Each structure stands twice: as C-alpha cells, then as structure tokens.
Amino acid sequence: MPIPNGGLITETNRQYYAGAQQFYIDAAGAGKTFTSTFNTDLIFGSSDPLNNNYILNNFKIYTSSDALNWLELTPSAAVANTTVIAPIAGLAVLNPVETNQTMTILVANDNVVPGMLIQNAAGNVTYGTVVSVVDNKNFIVNIVVSVPAANPGTSLSLKSASPWSVVGNIVTVASYLALGTYLKIQMNKNAIEDNYGSYEYTRLVDAIDNFLIAYVGPGKLIPSVKRSDVIFHAKRGLQEFSYDTLRSIKSQELTVNSALNVIIPQDYVNYTRLSWIDEMGVQHTIFPANTLTTNPYENPVQDDLGVPTQDSKDSNITGTSQTDAAWAANNPRRISGAFLNEYDNANLLYNSLYDTALGQRYGLNPPTSQKNGWFTINEREGKFSFSSDLAEKLITLEYISDGNAYDLDVRIPKLAEEALYAHILYAILSVTRGIQEYIVRRFKQERSAKLRNAKIRLSNLKSDQLIQVMRGKSKWLKF
Amino acid sequence: MAINVNTVYQTVLLILNKEQRGYMTPVEFNKIGNQAQLEIFETYFDSLNQQLRVPQTNVDYADRVVNIDEKISIFKTSGVATYSAPYFSLPKESGVAQSTETISTVINQQAYTYTALTSGQLSNGTVQVYFDGVLQPSSAYTINNNIITLTNSPTSVFTVLTVVDSNDFYRLGTVSYKIGALNSQELERVTKSELYHLLSSKLTKPSTTYPIYTYENQQITVYPTSIQSGITIDYIRKPLSPIWNFSLSGNAYVYNSNTSVNFELHDADQTELILKILLYAGVVIKSPEIIQVAAQQVAQENINQQR
C-alpha cells in the first residue's frame, strides 16, 4: 500500500524510505507553494547555503526538468541567478529614490521574479531590486544606484537572495518554475533516520488529544478538565514510565580521557550500564566501585587542628581530593587479583599460558573478582570517573532520560499507550473533588494492571530466545 | 430559519384584539420584540448547561443538547483576531448586521445628513465609505453624529456609499491557532493567577503546540508571545434586532417585507416568543389578565422543556 488511504500511515513509501516528496509543475510561474506532508515538520533556517542558518534546515529543495537529474535550489541556481542584457540607455536613480520605474530588456526572460537584486555581471555592485513583473520583458524596478549606459552585450545579473522559504510546512518558491518540471523536498539523512521506526510510537500530543476526546466530556467521569492538567499528568506519566517501564534507548559512545572521566550527558537521569568495548566490538560491563571508593562531595582544606579554613569571602577553601587521586593511581588488579593477562577481548580461541593458572587462588571475593574496571559517579564534578585500567578506553554509556528532554523524546511506545491513558485518568480522578473512593480505587487498579502489561510487552520476551537459553541449563561446565 | 416578524406581530395583535384590550404600535412591538428575543436567546446558554448535566437519548430529534445546539448554531460565527502588540483584538463584526446608505453628492457641498443610518449605528460599528465604488481612507471624510463631511469639496456628482458593520460580538467561544499547513491548535483559556504558575512550570509552560490565552477587556493575550498571527476566534454573535417596517396607506400601517428584519431565533421558539411579547404587551396596555395567562404559558413551556 504505497499510498496513504485513510489509515494511521500518512507518508508514502518514498517519503518514509527515501525522505523525498516530489511535485509536478503543472502551471509555470513564480511564488508557487508546496505543502509538505512528511511526519517530520520542516525546519527552516535559510535557503542560502552561505547563510549560517542554512545548517538549521532539516531538508533541501531540488528542481529537475526530468525527475532524474536534480539540482538544489539555492541563490546560485540558474533559475534564481539569471543574466539579462542591460538596457542600452541605462537607468537613472529617480527622485525620490523610492520611485519605481520600468526596466525593459531585449530578450525575454522568465526567470526574473519580484525581489531579485539587480547587480552588475561581477556581482559586486547592486543597482536595485525588481519590485514586480509586468511580463517577461518588462519589470517594475527600484533603482538606488544608476545603471550605467551599456553597449549591447553588457549583462546584468539578477539574483534571488532567498529563492524559497517555509512557514508551517508550506514551501513558497519565489523563483520561476517552468511548466512540466519537477520540485522535490528532500529530507536530510538525520531527519530520515529519526523518522524510521516512528510508527512504533505515538506522539505525546496525539495521546493528549486522544485522551481529551475519549475520556473527557459531558456524561463521562471527567466532564471537564483543564488541558494543562492533562499535559502535566501526561508528561509526568512519561517521566515515570521512562524510569522503569520504557526501554532504555539512550546511549553514548565515549572515550575515557587521561583524567579518567567522562561528563554526564545533558539529559541523564540514571545509568543502566557502562561497558568498555574491546577490539572485537564486544562490550564488557564496568561495575560501580560502590564500597571500594567514593568521590567526596567537598574537600575543605583544614588547618593543623583539623578545622576547615575560609577565604576572604567566608567560604570554605577547598582542595583537591586525595581519595580521587589515590584511586586514580591504583591498579585495579591489586583488588581483583587478576593475572597480568593482556588479552582483554572476548575471543574464545585466544588462550595463553597464564590461563592455565586460573582458579588457583583461594578465597575469591566475587564482587571484586573482575577485570573490567570500576566507575564512580563524581557528583561534585558531574562526571563519571573510572579506574586507571580504563584510561583511553572506548566505553558505552547506556542511560535513561525522562522522555521530556527533546521533542523527539516526547512520545510513548504504542505498547504502553493504554497504560498512559490509565495513568492520566487515575491521576485526574484521584485529585477531583466529589469522585467516590471506590471509583478512584478502580482506576488505580486499572493503571497498575495496564502498567504491568506494558512492562511485560516491552520486556520483549520471545519464546525462541528463552528456549535457546534454557537449552544450556543442564550443562555442568560452561566456558 | 427565522421567525417572520409579520407573523409574530399579527398574532400578537390578534390575541390582543380578540380580548379587546388594546393595540400595540409597530414601534412598541419592535422594542418589545427585541427585548423578548434577547431574553430567549440568553436562556439557550443556561439551558445547554443544564441539559449537559443530565443523561440524553441519542434518538433523532429527542436529544435536548442537540436541539439547543441547533438553536445556538444560527448565531455561531468566526473571525480572525488582529494583533496589535501585545494583544489580539477580537473580531467585532460578523458582517451579518450590516447597514448601508447611498448618497449622491452635490457639487461644492461637503456635508450630508444620513437618513437611514442612525448616529448610534455609526458610532458603534465599523464604517466603510466608498466613492463611486472605491473604498476611501478615513482621511477622505469625517463623521459626526449622523452627518458625513467630505474632506474635499466635490467638483462632480458621484455616489457615496456608506457601509456600517455593527458590533455584534456576544460571547467568546473557541480560540484556535493555525500557521501554514500545521495542525490547528486550540488555545486554553486561563486566568491571570493560573498564568503565572503555568509560565513558571517547565512541564506546563505554553508552547506553539499548546498555546494559552488570557481574556480581558475584549482583548486576548496569547502565550507564547511568539504567536503574533494565525489566531481565529469562534464566537456567538448577537441576534439582529427585529424590525416590523411599514409604509403608511392613509391611516393604516402596511407591512414592508423588504425593509423589515425577521426574528433570528429558531422556528421552534415562535410560540414562546409570542408569549413573551404578549407578557410585555400586557404590561404596556396594563392588562393583568394577559400578563397572567402569558406568564403561565411561558412557565408551563419551560417546565416541559426542562423535565
């Protein structure tokens, strides 16, 4: 079904897979508008690649005469940057300078559109602007620097500084588009990839609208409610679900610096796992140091009597942490008791002589008997700190956010959508005056049941995977 | 969908004359008719509120909420709010209540007196003046009371068309925001005290997806303040004032349907309207019996409607 036909899918296959929406120009002209129907809203900074705001765009505009060879529509494109033969007599500056006049050219040119700058061929002198177009030979222009009289053959360059613009997903193309040509909105790679798999989610705005439609109104338990209340409970619900129900999809690939730390991500709420990556790309879980060490939150400098000292502004003078320094200088193998085996990867076929000595030491302490390193969270500096064996190592940080940090986050997996409705419903009823307690309790139970269902659904327990794991249950020895 | 003003007037006269109690002049009727119409009109909103609180049947024609909404729908309209920082002004004229008058100029005469347009209409409505069909800027004329004075003395004869759109805004409904091809968003109405909390909370801070507004002094202030266009107002307009207009034929009033204005209420309210007018007519002609009978009928009708 490549064409959306009234279902929840509103993008064509081409829009989804290739990120492209194409239009046929069935009537020539300038100032045409094209409505984008992508799931992703168009973000517009500038149509000029030389403008700093151009990088804000999440799409490009292309034109083509055959729908095969596409040319990006920029101020330097042929339709936006055309050349005409200058009027032989030139054009004077009128008094007052705001007065418009007619410029007539010898050779008809369809590409001249209102708003174009009139410049010399070199483009370093601007004579004025095109105010309006009478026909393809006569234009109403406003001249601010007189156009010199020219011999036949002298050219003027007419440029559109902004050949197109966007307001509310409607692209307005100022440049002239010829009959039978094509225009294409092409989303950027990031925008396309952000949209891939988005059918798995319902946007929070849709969930809020759906809730207001289905659960609020005359004759219902909630006859009326402030929309801001629904927004609040929906966002709070998304936050709560993010902590323990929704899948953790946030992760960063980082390198531990020589100071043995990485900065906590901006939208970080809690970590789910830190791993270091070996040369095979296999991850090895880094464990929290927990009781082994800590990062003191304050390091006041003490005098000889042990009293913290203050500066001239009466605040404690702080020094560097001795604990942090000692831990950074420590070789974790002195804690784990690991042999000096440098073959730190997951290759099963990679054995060494040292491995024959494995298991000879008595009294292993399981929590410290690992060689993947340790991390602590340095709340004072807002960083993750690592043990010295992880210096310069590639790590991955998997963490959870609260689902409200960025626009793209503000969505709920469809598997948990019903649980969100139940959450909002319960949250509103529980604070509404006059609702009987048994009704509140009913919806509390319903919320709990639906949330449990959502957790099970999102756990992704697949029977064949369980079978595969359980096949090893009777093996005594595992490598 | 309007109640014919002549039918109502004739029925009222018939009942009054049948009882041999007096006569109601067209001027009295027009004023009482307007009063009765506004009274019934205002009851729509209270009735709707009342009916929304009781269970309804969804059988055709029996749903009272739908029936009342049908009556109100006659007056539902919408318009674009104009931005003048930092407020949006409400649309004041739906264009339904429009009055016009055409004057032919006399060479070298600058001042003309309106005969059809009243000074009240001119001062309360939006006035547009056309010279031979061309809309004129306000600098081309001045209007004081019911006299228009042209800025330039006319050197030829031309027509001056004056169009007055009366301010008929009655009750604010839904305020929505739409820009380009993006989905239309309804704005939530909040009080000033709520506004401060909403603006302070990161979770509920208004956005272009969820904009809010405050409503004060016929102006709305929209948040976020980056919204400066694309605001549409759905509102209820006032009903047109009924006019039973006439021409004199001897001593008799002859109904003129062309210049008369019908009641705009729903046809279903014709009986109640007549009873209400009779009620006031009873007061005018000092007939307690008429008042009593009409009041009883009105009360009985209200009971039936709300049972």
Task: Write a short abstract of this structure.
Chain A is α+β, with helices and mostly antiparallel strands and 479 residues long. Chain A has helices at residues 13-17, 189-195, 204-215, 227-244, 322-329, 333-336, 417-430, 437-459, 463-470; strands at 20-24, 32-35, 59-64, 71-72, 81-85, 101-104, 117-120, 126-133, 138-143, 155-159, 164-167, 170-173, 182-187, 201-203, 250-255, 261-263, 270-277, 283-288, 374-378, 383-386, 394-400, 411-413. In chain B, the strands form five sheets. In chain B, strands 2-3-15-14-13 form a five-stranded mixed beta sheet, with no helix packed on it.
Give the SSE map:
The complex is a heterodimer of chains A (479) and B (307).
Chain A: H1 13-17, E1 20-24, E2 32-35, E3 59-64, E4 71-72, E5 81-85, E6 101-104, E7 117-120, E8 126-133, E9 138-143, E10 155-159, E11 164-167, E12 170-173, E13 182-187, H2 189-195, E14 201-203, H3 204-215, H4 227-244, E15 250-255, E16 261-263, E17 270-277, E18 283-288, H5 322-329, H6 333-336, E19 374-378, E20 383-386, E21 394-400, E22 411-413, H7 417-430, H8 437-459, H9 463-470
Helix pairs in contact in A: 3-4, 4-7, 7-8
Chain B: H1 5-18, H2 26-52, H3 64-73, E1 76-80, E2 82-84, E3 87-89, E4 98-104, E5 111-113, H4 119-124, E6 126-131, E7 134-135, E8 141-144, E9 147-150, E10 159-165, E11 169-177, E12 185-186, E13 188-189, H5 192-200, E14 212-216, E15 219-223, E16 231-237, E17 246-249, E18 252-255, H6 270-284, H7 288-306
Parallel strand pairs in B: 13-14
Antiparallel strand pairs in B: 1-16, 2-3, 3-15, 4-10, 5-9, 6-7, 6-10, 8-9, 11-12, 11-16, 14-15, 17-18
Mean pLDDT of chain A: 90
What is the overall silhouette of chain B? flat
Terminus-to-terminus distance of chain A: 49 Å
Give the N-terminus to C-terminus distance of chain B in angstroms. 26 Å
Largest interface: A-B, 21 and 21 residues
Given as residue ranges, the uncertain stretches of chain B (5+ residues, pLDDT < 50) are none
Count every beta strand of chain B, where a strand is a DSSP E run of 2 or more residues.
Answer: 18
Instruction: Determine the structural class of chain A based on helices, strands and strand pairing.
Output: alpha+beta
The whole-angstrom Rg of chain A is: 33 Å
Strand fraction band of chain B? Answer: 25-35%
Considering DSSP H and I runs of 4 or more, what fraction of the residues of chain B is helical?
A: 25-40%
Number of helices of chain A: 9
Percent of residues in β-strands of chain A: 15-25%
| H/E topology pattern of chain B | HHHEEEEEHEEEEEEEEHEEEEEHH
**Helical content class of chain A:** 10-25%
Largest sheet of chain A: 7 strands, mixed
Q: If helices are DSSP runs of H or I spanning 4 or more residues, what is the number of helices of chain B? A: 7
Strand order of the largest sheet of chain A: 15-21-17-18-19-20-16
Biggest sheet strand line-up of chain B: 2-3-15-14-13
Record field, number of beta strands of chain A = 22
Note the main sheet of chain B: 5 strands, mixed
